[in-house]
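User: I'm writing a tutorial on reading structure tokens. Could you give me a worked example: one chain, its sequence, then its tokens, then a sentence or two explaining what the tokens reveal?
Assistant: Sure. Here is the example chain.
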Amino acid sequence: MGRGDARTRKGKIFKGSYGKTRPHKAKKSAGTAQPAAKAPGRRSS
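And here are its predicted structure tokens:
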């Protein structure tokens, strides 16, 4: 499972296709701010 496997995210990026694993709105909706905000809460408690 890698670039040759079209069912994985890495494979879809390599092939240039979209689907369930790699939706078109993935770049816009994926935000690094949400996980970063949750991480300090876990560390402090």
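What the tokens reveal: Residues 33-44 form the longest helix (12 residues). The chain has a mean pLDDT of 73.
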